[in-house]
Amino acid sequence: MLEEASCRGPNRLAGAKSPYLLQHASNPVRWHPWGEDAFALARSEDKPIFLSIGYSTCHWCHVMERESFESEAVAAVLNRHFVSIKVDREERPDVDKVYMTAVQAMGVGGGWPLSVWLTPDLRPFYGGTYFPPEGRFGRMGFIDLLRRIAQLWREDRDRILASAADMAAQIKEIAEAAHPAPGVPGRSLVGQGVRAFKEEFDWGHGGFGSAPKFPRPVVLRLLLRHARAEDDREAREMVFKTLEAMACGGMYDQLGGGFARYAVDAEWLVPHFEKMLYDNAQLIDAYLDAIQAMDSGEDWDPARRELFAGVVEDTAGYVMREMTMPEGGFCAAEDADSEGREGAFYVWTEGQVRAVLPGADGDFAVAALGVSAAGNFFDHSAPEGVQPPGENVLRRAMSPAEAASASGIPASEAEATWTRIRERLLRARLGRPRPLRDDKVLTSWNGLMIGALARAGALFGREDWVGAARRAADFLRRHQFDEATGRLGHSWRQGSAEGPELLDDYAFLAKGLIALHDATFDAQWIGWATRLCEEIVARFGDAARGGFFMAGEGGDRSLPARMKEDYDGAEPSGNSVAAQALIAIGRRLGREDFEAAAGRVLSLYGGHMERLPQAVPNLLSALDQWHEAPARVVLCGDRGSESFRELERVARSAYWPDLVIVRGGPSGVVRDPSGGRPPMMPEAQLCCDGHCEAPVSDPRALAERLRRSHAQGRTMPGAGDPPSKD
Asked: Could you tell me which of 119, 8, 17 has the C-alpha nearest to residue 72?
C-alpha cells in the first residue's frame, strides 16, 4: 500500500510554548496539540487518534522520536491512517492520568513515552509505552503495529469499538473505586504501612525492592514520622541508610549537586540523568528531616550529619544556580541527554579526569570518585559508535580521608583537596555542551521547592534560600494567580500562563506557603495559603463521596472520566498534600471546615491505606498528622537579638513534624504570653497536649523541654482504634 507523503516543514506544534512539544515541531509527523481541532479532524476524517504523551527530559521519549517520529516512513503511515496528537504530561497531568490508567488496566506497565490509540470520541482501545521501529525487546515494531491497527480500524471496527467501550467503563470504575468509611481510620494503619515497607527494604544498599531504584521521599518521611512517634530505631536506620547510599551514589551529582531521577541499578550507581525539580525539592525536605531527627534523638552521627548537610547545601546551590529563572520562578527540569546521548554531560573517563587533575590530585579524584579505566557506564540506547569506552558515573567511593591516604596526600589536607578537585572538575564540566533545560514554571513543583528552600533556609540560617523561596512565591502571585476569581494557573513560560485548574497546584503551593510563613513569620503567606485552601474545597471537592478531583469543574469535559489521584509516587498525590495543608491551616486558624474536608479525604482512602499502604505513604503521613496533638512554640521578643535567634534555632532544630513555631507579640500572629507587654528579654513557650508550659529564656531549657516532650510522645487522646468519627 502506498502511504501518504510525510509532513514537510513545521507542523501544528510550532506555536506551542511547551519545550517538549517544540522538540517535535519539525517532525515529519503531522502532529496536533491536544484540543477540539484535532478531535474534530478525527471525526470528520473517520480516523483513530494516535496519542503520544511524554515530557521534555524523558530519555526514552528522545529515543522514540529519533527512531520513529523523525522517520519519513513512520510519518507516512501515521499521516495517512491516524490523527496524531502530542501531549506534554507536565502541562496536562489530567490527560496523562486518564490514559495512563487505561494502559495500566490493559496489563501494560506504565511509563513514558506513553503511546495510546483512541477512537475519535477519545475512548482508548490499545496502548503501550516505547515501541522500537522494528520488532525487538519482545515488542512488535512500531510501523508494523500502526499498519495492523489501521487494518483493524478498516476491517474489524466493531471489535475495536467494543474494546473502547469496555475500556471506558473500566476507567470510570477505577475513578469511582474508593468508597468512604464511616469515619477517619485509626492511627494503627500507619504502623501497618511501615511494616509493609520494612518487608521490602534492601538492607544491603538502602531503598526498597531491587532495580530500578526510585528515591520516593514520601516513604522516607513517613518512616521518620513513625520512628519519632514509636521510637522505632529500625525505621530510623532505614531512612538514614537510604539517604546515605543515595548521597554517595551516582544518582547524586557529586560535582554540581542535585539528584537525577532514579538509578537503573540496585546500588544507586547509574542514574537516568534527568534532574526534576520535584525530586530535588522533596529530597531537600527528606535530608532536613534526617538532620533534625539526628539532632533531636540518640542517633547523632557526626559523619552522616555532615554528609546530609552537604547534600542540602549543594542541592539548594544547584537549584539557585541552574534552575532559577531571572523572573523568580523555578524551572521544571534538566534533560538526561546531550550531544545525542544520555549522560554525556556527566560521565568521565579516567583520562579526562587526569587531564584536569594531574599528579596526586588526579590520584585522589580517581580514588574518591570511583573512577576506573574500564568504566561503569554504558548507554545501550546510544547510536552505535557514539559512546567512547571507559566512561564513569562519579560516586563517593571513599571518604576524603581514605582517598588522601590512598593518594599520598597528608590527612590534614584531605578536606581541602576534596573541595578543590570537585571545583576543578565542575569548572571543566561546564565547558561541555549542557543538556536542555525545560524552563517552564509549573506552579505545583514550584510550591514544593518554595517549601523546601524556605525550610532549609530557616534551619541553616541562609537568608538567600529563604529569599529565593519568597521571590518564587511573589512570581506565582503576579503571574499565575487571579486575586479576584481565585484561579491559579498551572504552567508559565515566556510570559504566557497556560493549562487547566489542577488540584496539585493549589495544594502544593498552599503547603509551600505555610513553610514560607514559618520561615519568615510574614502573615501574608498564611493568608494566601488559607485562600488557596478555600479554593481547594470549592473547586475540587466531591461533596458526595469526599476527596478532591484532579481538575476543577471547568476542566476538560472531553475526557472519558473525571479522575482523582491518591497514588503517592514520584510526586505526592494532590489529595494527600491537600489533606496536610487543610489540617495545618485548620488547626492554626480554628477552621473546622478545613479539618472536616481533610477528614473526608482520609475516610475516602482508608481502604487504600489498609490494603495498599505502599501506594499511599503520604496519605499515611496525613493520617499521622490528623492524630497528632497540636503543638506550638511561641517566640516573643526582638527577633534581631542574639538571644531570640538562639531560641529560634533551638526550636527549628527539633524534629517535630507538626510543631508550629510562631512569633508572639504586637508584630506576630499570636498574642504573646505576657498579655501584650513585651518581655524584658526574648522568651519561648511550648504548648502541647492541651496546656502551655511557663515561658523560658534559656535556650538549653527550651531544648530540654522539646526533648522531654519528644520522649513522652504526642499522640492525641483517643487517636488509636477504633476509628474516630468526623
From this structure: 8
Question: Of 367, 402, 434, which closes a domain?
Answer: 434
User: Around Cβ 440, how many Cβ atoms within 10 Å?
Assistant: 27
Peptide bond into 722 cis (omega under 30): yes
Euclidean distance between CA atoms 374 and 364, whole angstroms:
18
Amino acid identity of 302? P
Instruction: For residue 5, name the pLDDT band (cuts at 50, 70, 90).
Output: very low
Question: Which of 637, 635, 697 lies closest to 660, judged by CA?
Answer: 635
Q: Angle 20-21-26 (CA atoms, 0-180°, nearest 5)?
A: 115
Question: What was the pLDDT predicted at 8?
Answer: 54
Peptide bond into 435 cis (omega under 30): no
Quote the CA–CA distance of 283 and 221 in Å, as a whole number: 10
Helical (H) or strand (E) element with 691 = strand 691-692
Whether the pLDDT of residue 722 is over 50: the answer is no
Q: How far apart are CA 353 and CA 425, in angstroms?
A: 7
Which residue stretches of 201-301 are H helix? 217-230, 233-248, 277-296
- Compute CA distances 237 → 172, 298, 304, 393, whole Å: 42, 12, 12, 27
Helix (H, G, I), strand (E, B) or coil at 439: coil
How crowded is the C-beta side of 697, counted as CA atoms within 13 Å? 9
Last residue of a domain, one of 434, 456, 471: 434
Domain enclosing residue 364, as ranges: 337-434
Average pLDDT, the chain: 92
549 DSSP 8-state letter? B
Number of other CB atoms surrounding residue 520 within 10 Å: 19
Answer whether 301's CB lies under 8 Å from 712's CB.
no
| Cell, residue 712 | 513522652
Residue 123 domain flag: yes
pTM of the model: 0.93
First to last CA, the chain: 65
Please name the residues in contact with 484: beta carbons below 8 A apart, sequence gap of 6 or more. none
pLDDT above 50: residue 56: yes
Task: Please give the share of the chain, as a percent, with pLDDT higher than 90.
Answer: 83
Beta strand pairing call for 275-276 and 333-334: antiparallel
3 state DSSP class of 543:
coil
CA distance 335 to 413: 36
Residue 642's domain is classified under what CATH number?
Answer: 3.40.30
CA dihedral 527, 530, 531, 534 (to 10 degrees): -160
SS3 annotation, 343-375: CCCCCECHHHHHHHCCHHHHHHHHHHCCCCCCC
- Gap between the Cα atoms of 294 and 310, Å rounded: 15
The grid coordinates of residue 412 equal: 590534614
Domain count of the fold of the chain = 3
